[in-house]
Amino acid sequence: MPDSEAAVRKRIRGLLAQLYGGDSFVETVSDGISLRQAGVSSHALVALLVAMEDEFGFEWDDDVRPEALRSIESLAGHVLSLQE
Amino acid sequence: MAVRPEVPDGAAEGTLTVWRPVQPPYGPPEQFDAGRRAAGAALFAAGAAERKRFVPREPDGRPGFPPGFPGSIAHTDRLAIALVVPGASSVGVDIESAVITARMARFVLRGLESQTLLPPVGDYTMRELFAAKEAAFKALYASGALEEFPFWWIELAEADGVLIASYRGSQVPVWIRSEPDLSLAVAIRR
């Protein structure tokens, strides 16, 4: 059964929290805000994408749409689209 | 604290550089503050009028440097840097202290880049090339001519000892210098 969108977002938040050593920063990042605008570094973003491959069992395509990488919401949407 | 690399020779002329430490607890808000303090000091050093020394955040998140004083900001969790290059077209800077794993490198580097720029053929490290792409992204995206795109879509090639970063017909040279724990990349379109 596919995950719910809320569950996927929560798991992505969990990955971000691991990268930042806790929840304090991640709790300030809303689901829809650009991760770059929220202060997520390029290093953390790439590390998150790698961690998502392991967490959700897929590989990012080289030509992934940039919009899919923008926010927790869009990342979750990409994961769910792969599960359909 | 990591030793700070000097601005590489090719990027140093006319470049005002300021470093600032990140204050505890070293999170993104403190990193942001350190970067803005560095930028204000760099604008002061560049001779910007007082009212132009504040660097607001643009709607897309980029720092808004005043006209005539293009600049860029980067930080690790401990250190921030700001560059201002009066009269340049656009500027990008990045500093990296963290390890770039092989899997992260797969995202960032294309096959040809790995083959030609990393040892044994090339002299660059994965950390340096990661920083180079991020610095180039800032310089190219700041030009305003491109839609936002993942920074790793930029292609790197070496010419006469300088890295040339390219994306969709736009190019910018990138200079790199590293210390053991910190790499600095500077991209300037003059």
UniProtKB/TrEMBL annotation, chain A:
SUPFAM superfamilies, A to Z: ACP-like
Top-level lineage group: Bacteria
Which InterPro entries does this one have? ACP-like_sf
What protein name does the entry list?
Acyl carrier protein
Q: Which organism is it from?
A: Nonomuraea soli
TrEMBL record, chain B:
Q: Which GO terms describe its cellular component?
A: enterobactin synthetase complex; plasma membrane
InterPro entries the UniProt entry points to: 4-PPantetheinyl_Trfase_dom, 4-PPantetheinyl_Trfase_dom_sf, 4PPT_N, Enbac_synth_compD-like
- Domain named 4'-phosphopantetheinyl transferase N-terminal is located at 31-84
Q: Where is this region: Disordered?
A: 1-33
**Stretches assigned to the 4'-phosphopantetheinyl transferase domain:** 90-158
Cofactor dependence is on:
Mg(2+)
Q: Would you say which domain of life the source belongs to?
A: Bacteria
Under which name does UniProt file this protein?
4'-phosphopantetheinyl transferase EntD
